[in-house]
Amino acid sequence: MGDNAAVKNHHRQVFEVSANVAPAGSKCFDDDGRLKRTAQLGWIAGPTVLFLFSIVTYYTSTLLADCYCSGDPANGKRNYTYMDAVSSNLGGMKVKICGWIQYLNFFGVAIGYSIASSISMIVVLSFSSTTFSVVPNPPVCCQIWRYALKLELEKFFGKDLLISEDLSRTVSPNHFAHLTKILDDDKISGKIVHGGRRNKDSLKISPTILLDVPEDSLIMNEEIFGPLLPIVTVDNIEESFSVINSGEKPLAAYLFTNSKTLKGKFVRNISAGGLLINDIGMHFANPHLPFGGVGESGIGACHGKFSFDTFSHKKAVLYRSFAGDAPARYPPYTPGKLRLLKALLGGDIIGIIRALLGW
Question: What is the pLDDT of residues 46-62, one digit of tens each?
Answer without folding.
Answer: 566 667 767 767 766 67
